Amino acid sequence: MIDVAVVGGRFGADFLPIYRSHPDVGRVGIVDVNQDALDTVGDRYGIEDRFASIEALLASDRYDAVHVASPVRFHVEQVVAVLQSGRHAASAVPMATSVDGIRRIIEAQRAAGKNYMMMETMVFGREFFFARELHRRGKLGPLTYLRGTHIQDLDGFPRYWQGYPPLTYSTHALSPLLALAGARVQKAHALGSGRLTPDRVGDFDNPYPLETALFRLDRDDLVAEVTVSFFQVARKYQEGFSVYGQDRGLEWPVVSNGDEFTVFELQPLNSQHRGRSATATCVPTPDRPDLLPPEIAPFTQRHNYDPGGGRPLVDQHSGHSGSHPHLVHEFVRSIVEGRKPVVDAITAATWTAPGIAGHESAMRGGEAIEVPDFGPPTRFV
After folding, report:
1. Residue 357 near residue 349, CB atoms below 8 Å
2. Residue pLDDT, tens place only, 361-374
């Protein structure tokens, strides 16, 4: 049994009931600098251990692991502090927004000898499991082209999101592509598009509402196209990926409508026609409760969670394609089993650094930027 504390009562609240329900987790605590949020979330989920700062948590002798779900600008400092305290660390994406930040986490993890896991939702969602299974069975054929998209309007979000450099938050769009291809990015070519309005510029060195990149991978002459936008794009939210092989292709829906991929399958060449036709079939992507303990399997879907103690039921949503219980289970089991998590520090670096290079390329008008090689990432396929 391990004890886990979660930093951040907003996004972190999505994970509290999963940790509380996991059979290998004992005590669960929460950290938030906002006392009202701390009390509200703590009361809702029946969390007794509440800390007003991460420093207060780390000064205590409690908790084996800490899940950092705070705003992006705190990820590096808080993860390094957790590791240096002798605890295991998980972190929301991205790992960091600079190569120096990436290296600091890698060095802290190695020095501490504890686990670090980046909680990348897209490689634990039902769509990725579906795509991975087809690829493992050879149904896609050799891969030819990869595409990822993350378009989300952040108007009305806290000010620290204003002007955020889009590609530095590209792991949701890029990581499933690299995981399926078993590859890393060697070089980034990117451009920014549009111009942020003055009220959206923020504190970053970024003038673009949208950035798009071509990433050259290190195997099979593959290229991944990735587009990320947070402002001034009139489109419904999309966070997805498409994969095209020589035999079949998987395409994320234009508008999400029930967890379905469009599966394209090339047909045999017909001597009466030029080119090969392709069928298009909408295929549901099912949950994978077989990968989870029964105690947390319900969290892949929206349901009423009972926090106990006579408290009201909580309407618990299942964001990010049902990935949250899979993330928690992998982090917890990696600690219990004494092994690296699948999205360890090196894998996280491999998925995070290309976006940093991509933004640098966009700021230089599309100049090719080499991506550091941190070592071999985890093999997913």
Report:
1. no
2. 999 999 999 999 99
